[in-house]
Amino acid sequence: MGCENCSTGLDGAPKGCKNNGTCSSGGCDKLEVYDWLANLELPTGYQPYDIVEVRFKNSRKNFFRNVAQLALYPGDVVLVETNPGYDVGVVSVTGELARIQVKKKSPNLKPLEIKKLLRIANQEEIDKWIKGRSLEKELMYKSRTLALNLNLDMKISDVEYQGDLSKATFYYTAEGRVDFRQLIKDMADDFRVRIEMRQIGSRQEASRLGGIGSCGRELCCTNWLTDFRSVSTSAARYQQLSLNPQKLAGQCGKLKCCLNYELDSYLDALKSFPKNEGKLKTEKGEAFHFKTDVFKGLMWYGYKGEMGLIAITPERVKEILKLNKEGKNPKDLNDFIEKEIKEVEIGYSNVVGQDSLNRFEKSFSKKPYNKNRNKKKNNFSQKSNPS
Predict the structure, then answer these.
(1) Terminal Cα distance for the chain, rounded
(2) N or C: more exposed end of the chain, with fewer CB within 10 A?
(3) Residues 6 or more apart from 348 whose CB is under 8 A from it?
(4) Superfamily classification of domain 128-205
């Protein structure tokens, strides 16, 4: 994740990590949209699109109208209209790409409801914005203490100051309805700002806080995922995964969003498999279905009381089901095996083409002890040094 206060300094380099724009964590460009239309010129007489997308803290984005027709580029710190006061954000998308974003995210957006983009922020306003970011952590800890004193069943996960420091938005999660009227009064007296409480789900909480998933990479909802689609246990069943809540659940406590990534490919592959895969009737007995290998295109069946499993292709299973439907039973499932499938044991293999590891044992072995050789050495030494 990125730095907590990764804003722009006087020389154009980011503050915080002092990494001069080469932050490898991707926090400076979180949920960034690549403008692939930047190098294209507009046709003659065509007015540029006057709506821009502005990114705020974490994954919050909104659209604003560029009434003053300012020359804006992604990364500019701007002031936008809010009620009351103003807020500070960073421009993420401009031009024709912003038109595509509006059609994709807010197709029913009315032009009169869009608030205005005031101007580009000056250094004093940017410093005020940075100051608010530095106060958010302490404000969150104090608000949690006030909520515990009132015995409220809620978890305050994040706080966001408005750009002019006149309002603070508290994001919380709760299982049910929470009466936080007294909490708002206590926080308004202590913090001297306007308080807004906003309830979010567990997935939105994980995207705001960030973290590392079981795959070893940054959470998808923190890095690039913007829409949260429902994930059901049927997605795990289609992919032949064991229904283990500890492995299928993410940091938010819900099913992992990545279960939907390859679901369409599995559904297309399963169209070639028979739907009625429960059991097959043969003269030897009933064979029950144990597992399906989607990648190899095999279905594994076994008889009751026997240890081995029989692998059959989906086409052959359909033939057996058709015979069972006609009232005919084949003799044995082994007659429908097209080829013998051997399980390959993974072990050490010579992938470089070298010899065995003990190839130097003979060349470096000690020579046998020669007694006659030692006697010759002693006789020569006695002759050369007579006493």
Answers:
(1) 86
(2) C
(3) none
(4) K homology (KH) domain (3.30.300.20)
Burial annotation 17-51 (CB, 10 A radius, 16+ → b, else e): beeeeebebebbbbbebebeeeeeeeeeeeeebbb
Q: What is the pLDDT of residues 338-384, one digit of tens each?
A: 655 555 565 655 555 555 666 666 665 555 656 565 555 555 555 55
As separate numbers, helices (DSSP H) first and strands (DSSP E) second, the chain gives 10, 12
pTM above 0.90, yes or no: no
CA–CA separation, 208 vs 204, rounded Å?
Answer: 6
What are the angstrom distances between the C-alpha of 301 and each of 280, 297, 313, 322, 340? Answer: 8, 14, 11, 17, 15
Q: 3-class DSSP state for residue 146?
A: helix
Give the span between the Cα atoms of 276 and 289, in whole angstroms.
Answer: 10
Q: What is the DSSP letter of 174?
A: -
In this structure, which amino acid lies at residue 136?
A: E
**3-class DSSP state of 294:** coil
The predicted-structure confidence for 154-199, as pLDDT tens digits, reads as follows 999 999 999 999 999 999 999 888 999 999 999 999 999 999 999 9
Q: Using an 8 Å Cβ cutoff, are 280 and 326 in contact?
A: no
Q: Where in the chain is the domain with CATH 3.30.300.20?
A: 128-205
Give the Cβ contact number of residue 162 at 10 Å.
21
For residue 207, give the nearest of 194, 195, 218 by alpha carbon.
Answer: 218
- Reduced to 3 states (helix: H, G, I; strand: E, B; else coil), residue 117 is strand
Question: For the packed helices 181-191 and 123-149, what is the interaxial angle rounded to 10 degrees?
Answer: 130
